[in-house]
Amino acid sequence: MKLETIKLENSNSATLTLYLHNITKELGDQARPAILVIPGGGYEFVSEREAEPVAIAFYNAGYQVGILRYSIKEEARNMQPMAEALTAIKLLRENAEEWLIAPDKIVTCGFSAGGHLAASCGTMWNEPALMEKLGYTDDRYKPNAMILCYPVISSGEFAHRGSFTAISGSHENDAVAEFFSLDKRVNGETPPTFLWHTEDDSVVPIENALLLIGALRKHKVSFECHIFNKGHHGLSMCNEEVNSPHPHAAHWFPLCVEWLGSIGFPAK
After folding, report:
1. Are 265 and 69 in contact (CB under 8 A)?
2. Does 27 have pLDDT greater than 60?
């Protein structure tokens, strides 16, 4: 394994940590899809339970992996985490040859507020203010697919209000917060999406996933969704390592790997 941490440009604290396979080209190995893991934390902290344990699982499944640790709290305003996530995608794509990544198979994988950030990459990459902030005019920053785990999505009735307050500064469901409501931003260019949630999540209501599904269906975007009947918020890998053992909901991971293969993103 090649392990490396890169400080992102135009950020005070954001980093990209890489977990890369040492592929031997002379033995016929090919570049692999990359998973960009984005932990949750309500934009108030970055959950380590949703960082390395997830990265190692995808690495062991055969993927190249990066973890984005992004700006939080006061530094999360002005779309700064979105700019950092898109910059991480650009880095993976621009260094694809060196890091042995398939540049057309870069996937964001986010949890809770990190799910919001992962979904922002696929729905806000062409937001004019972001394009101006980062200085691009094409789709080099856009992910090719998204994995969203109990994601924060809507600023409306079912919002995780703290997440929207952190990134928008607004404590209300107003136009400032709605700017970041991703069910309103889905269109025909949104990439294929895998979602999972638990029915009794009391922190981020399941309606967030349902609202996104409705938008994906409306715009004919390919998706797969799994809703498990039990499980508290923040299950991560659903095992003892992350102090959240839940054998049934743990099926999300093999189902996700199968889905990746079904859309043409197998690990090998």
Report:
1. no
2. no
Cα 129 to Cα 253: distance, rounded to the nearest angstrom: 35
239 confidence band (pLDDT: 50, 70, 90): very high
Would the pTM count as exceeding 0.90? yes
Cβ 256 vs Cβ 147: under 8 Å: yes
- What CA–CA distance (Å, rounded) separates 42 from 164? 8
Taking 70 as the threshold, does the pLDDT of residue 81 lie above it? yes
Question: Where does the chain show beta strands of DSSP type E?
Answer: 2-7, 15-20, 32-38, 64-69, 101-111, 145-149, 193-198, 223-228
Taking the C-alpha atoms of residue 228 and residue 42, their distance in angstroms, rounded to an integer, is: 22
- Residue 42 near residue 22 (C-beta atoms within 8 A): no
User: How far, rounded to the nearest angstrom, does the alpha carbon of residue 50 sit from its chain's CA centroid?
Assistant: 11
Give 30's pLDDT tier (boundaries 50, 70, 90). Answer: confident
Q: Are strands 193-198 and 64-69 parallel, antiparallel or unpaired?
A: unpaired
Which domains does the chain carry?
2-262 (3.40.50.1820)
66 forms bridges with which residues in the sheet?
18, 36
What is the reported pLDDT for 10? 86
Structure tokens that stand for 226 in this block = 């799994």
- H or E element: which one contains 146? strand 145-149
